[in-house]
Amino acid sequence: MVRETNRHFRFDWITILLFFLLVFFGWINILSASHVGIDVDYLDFSQPYGKQLIFIGLTFVIILVLLALDAKFYERFASIIYITSMLSLVGLFLFGKSVNGATSWYGIGSFTIQPSEFAKAATALAVAKYISDLNTDIKRLKDQLGTFLIIVIPAILVLLQNDTGSTIVYGTFFFVLFREGLPKTYLYIALFLIIVAVLALKFWAPLVILVVAVLCGISYFINKKKAPLVQMLLITLVGAIVAFGVKYFYTDILKSHQQDRISLWLRLEKDPKKLEEMKRTFAYNLNESEKAISSGGFFGKGFLEGTRTTGKFVPEQHTDYIFSTVGEEWGFLGTSFVVVVFVLLILRILHLAELQKSQFSRVYGYGVASIIFIHFMINIGMVMGLIPTIGIPLPMFSYGGSGLWAFTILLFIFIKLDSNRINEW
Amino acid sequence: MRKFLLFLVVLLCGVTFIGRLFYLQIYKGSSDNLYDDNAIRKVWDYPKRGFVYDRNGKLLVGNQPSYDVMVIPREVGDFDVNEFCSLLKIPREDYDKKLKRATNYSPRLASLFLPQLSKEDYAVLQEKMRKFEGFYIQKRQLRKYETSIGANVLGDIGEVNNRDIKKDPYYQMGDLKGKQGVEASYEETLRGVKGIKFIQKDRFNRDIGPYKDGKFDSLPQQGKDVTITIDSDLQAYGELLMENKRGGVIAIEPATGEILAMVAAPTYDPNLLVGRQRSKNFTKLYYDTIAKPLFNRSLKGVYEPGSPFKLMNALIGLQEGVITPEEKVTCYAGYRYGNRFMKCHCYIGRRNNMVSGIQESCNAYFATTYRKILDKNNSASEGINTWSKHVKSFGLGAYLNNDLHVGAKGRIPDREYYNHAYPKTFYSTYTISNAIGQGEVATTPIQLANMTAAIANRGYYYTPHIIKNIEDETIPERFTTLKKTTINKEHFEPVIEGMHAVYKNGTAKFLNVKDIEICGKTGTVENFAIIDSVRTQLTDHSIFVAFAPKEHPKIAIAVFVENGYWGSRFAGKVASLMIEKHIKGHITRKDLEDWLLRYTLEEEYAKPYTGKPFNINGKTLLQQVDEQEYYQLKRKLNSLNRPSNSG
């Protein structure tokens, strides 16, 4: 009996508390964003907030099931879970239902489910399983390619369903691989490419190349020991290719709505008339959500008091733009609270991951943290205009059953693995 | 290092976000809340809309106050709806319907609930308004027409729609805006700028005083008065003459480009589009797709110009040096080119010089001239481009860029235009119809009037415009800049002689007016309509252009009467009478006047819709109006001649 009780208390209650804080506060804001009329019927199940209440109720069932299963189950069945999940994505091409141009849903009656949400957890399991295999060495090119394949398959499948947002999420596995020993060169290359690409879009491409060349030159003369001249020239050359390539990609390949999003993000558009027009058309959401957040001030307007929220100024406010409701009704206090809770949650998971004895659990924990992180970063960044518009939900917060359950599964598998770490050796 | 990368990235991201939130929520804050705030009542103060006067200083359009009931749906409180409805004199269902429509537009923005209360209703309602939470009364300026003419010139104002609001955020739901005519072209001048007062409310919806002592309030700026170039007497006379006909009349003062009259027939009383009946009347006018009273034929009606266009070809021929005024062309009752034949009214063997060519409107003469112009350098392609350039210098084939709210480009072809039909070979005979103003050339009445003005001026024109004077402002420079045509001054005299001969002993000799030297040109234009997918010829259009006097012209006019048959039959009479009215101020040719009032073309217009085959042109009899209507028109004519008592 005593052992039983102890086992229950080995769950990391801090993580669980942070999780429920977000779910609860999320629901409060969904209620604000989706209620109509003056009086609020909390149990009106035809409204989003009522449905979300049902979804939240069902998470408890999911959690109980997840925690009841044996920890070894997840490692043993990772491959099968992954394959099943991939099949469910492929199945969308045959039976999928299209919403807002993305064919990402299965519809059973009025109930819809989005398998791409669950695929993230499945991929995290598969990556963990593959890397923790004794025969895998991430420093070897062959194993790097294998891991890459596991990650790229779901990414491409969701891209084909027009769900660009979910594709970008898979980029986050870089953090996992890096932690597990991916050579540092990849990090440098990635950083180099990102910086050159962004600068080339923002400024005049030849100037960027010149700067790269000059920096290379300086480092060559200061660092007398190493860095042969050929390598420096090569970097400059790659920089030039990337700079012009990005420019070409931006002007000739991207569709005009994607172009506009980027041009707005980098503040490339200077013509005030065009800007006004952007604010009325595709940047309408962003503009309204920024205004809603601004109007909250320090203390916010109070629960159910946000005029922009009540007036339904921000479209999709209960899903992707839920953070703007927090901004208007709860002010700076509320928004920083949410940001802090997210940061604490992610850091807590990372901390626990580092404590794991089995490599599988550690890799998986890293996967969980980085997936939550990229959602958090892109969603809130987008709502505040720091990142171009990419449609992905805010974990635990946004309205939607699939999303909520997928993150519950993602997180609670890790909580279960973590609770089992005493038994590992 | 590897352990800390993500750790640091997460922290960095969190700090950035909080920084950004600090900037958005605390540093930048928000200033636009005043308009959003439930606790502040916004009261708009609408300025006087500018008055419209005619060129003689007669007031045409003034204002009258109007009271609208506005609603902000989500502020609607609990009150006795039945009492409210009985005060407004509307049934209960209407109340629910209107409220629902307003809520659909926006629950938090003001919508128009019931427009234009009568003064009596307003007086009663105003006392009790405070009881009806969420509703308020907005005072506005409505138009008051002091005349029943010139609907197409003056235009009207109407409620803005969603598109207007999106285009210009100045407007809000329920605001009024110029929709047609002068009201639309000079909207910003006439409307002024509305002012606003912010009033603090308490939670019982009672006003407790100006918000922050009126710090954010603004005063309205009055709209400016405008004087338009229209002579309302001439306009009224033209409208009367055009009763029971369809078409357009445009009269221009050649020395300035001012539009003296702009008649579009059929027309309507501008008072129909004011007040609570507006939307009903507008719908009726709008859905009359046969007579199209809202279609301004003098500006938008694109027709083949017919014979008046021969004047252009004469001028170009002289300018290009391919003909001389004396040179004679023999007419064989038509013109043969290749194995085709273009008919003419001249007798066989008549020899025409330029003056008699214009006088008799000889097709052969102008076909010869047109071919000479195009074949000048043995290249019709080059020739037609030169020709096109000359024609366009008279303002044809392009928007005039004037201050009228609508317009049409018309069409003056050049070589490129024919590329599709004749990609390789191109001879002057291919486009020979252009010689007599048919074929591919097309113009609007205002363009023809402008062409006539340019001829009257011997080679230049001012863009025709309708604005004469704006209070405290000068009229746009583009209306006072002289525009030169590409034809030299000396070439106009023979052509004007020809136009004069038209009146002296040509196609319009019986239209002469004593003591006025009128120069004119008739036109008769074949036209077709698709009836039950069969291309059917209709009775010809009657066209006339004229200016007078010959020296120092005061008026240039173009008249277009749809299906009026030959040029002098309808259009010529209208032109002569309007010229006499403008120059003498009274009418001596009572016979012409009487004829125009007596005969109607309504039967002609009804023909295509009867579903039966019908005769056209010479094979049909002209219909008279019945006696009752005739006397009604007579009475109207008499009342025009009496000096108006409005002062």
How does this model look, in words?
The complex is a heterodimer of chains A (425) and B (647). With 425 residues, chain A is mainly alpha-helical. Chain A folds into two domains: 2-180 and 288-423, no CATH class; 189-278, no CATH class. Chain A contains 19 helices and three strands. Chain A has a three-stranded antiparallel beta sheet with strand order 1-2-3, with helices on one face. In chain A, α2 (13-34) runs antiparallel to α17 (322-355), α10 crosses α11 and α10 (184-202) crosses α12. The two termini of chain A are 24 Å apart. Chain B has 23 helices and 22 strands. In chain B, the strands form seven sheets. In chain B, strands 2, 3, 4, 5, 10 and 16 form a six-stranded mixed beta sheet that branches. Chain B folds into two domains: 40-228, Penicillin-binding protein 2a (Domain 2), CATH 3.90.1310; 232-641, Beta-lactamase (3-Layer(aba) Sandwich), CATH 3.40.710.10. With 647 residues, chain B is an alpha+beta fold. In chain B, a hairpin with a 4-residue loop joins β11 (247-253) and β12 (258-265). In chain B, α10 packs antiparallel against α20 and α13 (310-319) crosses α15 (363-374). Chain B is globular. The chains are: A mainly alpha (425), B alpha+beta (647). At the A-B interface, α9, α15, α16, α17 and α18 of A face α1 of B.
